[in-house]
DNA sequence: ATACTTAATGAACACTTGTTTGTTAACTTT
DNA sequence: AAAGTTAACAAACAAGTGTTCATTAAGTAT
């Protein structure tokens, strides 16, 4: 890859990130980005169509790091006991902490992903009111459980939509009940 | 509320929805919206700042319907047995089907919520590779389970961010394990 | 029915966007 | 080191954005 391209794209990413710390993505203009990156506006359009595309490149970097940190435990462990999956092997939360500023930027309620956050928040509220009434396990953080539950339902809906509504709503409801009552089985699987 | 306002906003919502069926939200201009709504551009800016704000109004309508359909079962049932929560009481999937076009529009992978979808997809992929290895329950749809699992983790991360990283990553990982092993308790709670 | 309030309009403004075109200069390949 | 390639640049364009302001007319309240 041409060194000029690498430098330009790196400068654009840098500029976008530093702007996103200061203001909403919505309000950042391409002119501002190139101004901060000290590049010509045409250079931006040579590589990207929208600022969203540039942002996707930034996301790519973080996602690659996530994939690495998720797979990291398996590199040292020869066999994986699913039932006894220790919380220490779950590295994803460390990854998030390492990219703290990024995730804060990305997931703040007002930000980008308007609809999914809204839907998630609504379901979470409903969960808090209802499904948690019977729970008395003091060791479990209620807010975390509600958010877990809310977004898991969102996940099922997204999968359903991606499957083009092939299943019936009744099937979906049944699956939800089954998954909630499901537990991973304690088998030991040899690595790869 | 002034009848003119109600009519204008309704026309703008209508116009936006019909445009969103045809093309990406990104590519819809405010000029197009008012043109289709047969209104002056200034009228749009009287009520909204960005097209995102108008879109939020559309979302509000659907969310209100969701809240209703979620709470509907409890209106007829006097007591609620959490353990025996029948799938038939879970109305949320019917709500989604009733707004099929809307959800398809909103949740298609290329659309709006870039980052969360990306994050969800990555975690789902990783889940499919790993956590499902030991599962042999033929009654559970693997893709649904993976998506459920992926977005539930996303939900925990979002909650963590909203709590301003008060907890440690180790705590988060422990909570995840606890929640996965958690089951709702079979208590019967009197309605309100 | 009349007076008031204010939504909707049209025109105008500086600015950003997305695109194109020719020129300059940096990089790669031989 | 020279030749060929192409990124970065500057300038210019139509179209959209976000804002303001005076004018018209629809709606509300008395």
What would you note in describing this structure?
2 copies of one chain form a homodimer. Chain A is mainly alpha-helical and 192 residues long. Chain A has a domain at 113-184. Helices cover 66% and strands 3% of the residues of chain A. In chain A, strands 1-2 form a two-stranded antiparallel sheet. Chain A is elongated and about 55 Å long. At the A-B interface, helix 4, helix 5, helix 6, helix 7 and helix 8 of A face helix 4, helix 5, helix 6, helix 7 and helix 8 of B. Chain B binds a DNA duplex (30 and 30 nucleotides) through residues 2-5, 8, 29-32, 39-43, 45-46, 49-50.
**Biggest interface, chains and residue tallies:** A-B, 96 and 96 residues
Described by the principal axes of the CA atoms, the overall outline of chain A is elongated
- Percent range of helical residues of chain A: 55-70%
Main pleated-sheet profile of chain A:
2 strands, antiparallel
The low-confidence parts of chain A are 185-192
Oligomeric form of this entry?
A: homodimer
Series of H and E elements of chain A: HHHHEHHHHHE
What's the overall average pLDDT of chain A, rounded? 83
Content of β-strand of chain A? under 5%
Please count the helical segments of chain A.
9
Radius of gyration of chain A: 21 Å
The end-to-end distance of chain A, rounded to whole angstroms, is: 34 Å
Across the major sheet of chain A, the strand order is 1-2
Number of strands of chain A: 2
Derived from helix and strand composition plus strand pairing, the structural class of chain A reads mainly alpha
């Amino acid at each position: 890859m041409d060194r000029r391209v690498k430098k330009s794209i790196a400068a654009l990413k840098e500029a976008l990130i530093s702007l996103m710390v200061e203001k909403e993505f919505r309000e950042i203009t391409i002119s501002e980005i190139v101004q901060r990156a000290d590049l010509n506006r045409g250079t931006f359009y040579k590589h990207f169509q929208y600022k969203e595309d540039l942002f996707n490149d930034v996301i790519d970097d973080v996602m690659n790091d996530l994939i690495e940190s998720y797979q990291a435990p398996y590199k040292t462990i020869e066999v994986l006991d699913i039932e006894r999956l220790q919380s220490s092997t779950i590295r994803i939360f460390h990854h998030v902490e390492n990219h703290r500023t990024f995730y804060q930027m990305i997931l703040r309620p007002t930000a980008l992903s308007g609809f999914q956050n809204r839907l998630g928040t609504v379901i979470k509220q409903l969960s808090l009111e209802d499904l948690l009434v019977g729970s008395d396990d003091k060791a479990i953080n209620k807010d975390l459980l509600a958010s877990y539950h809310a977004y898991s339902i969102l996940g099922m809906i997204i999968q359903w939509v991606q499957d083009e509504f092939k299943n019936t709503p009744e099937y979906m409801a049944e699956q939800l009940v089954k998954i909630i009552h499901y537990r991973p089985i304690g088998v030991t699987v040899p690595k790869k």
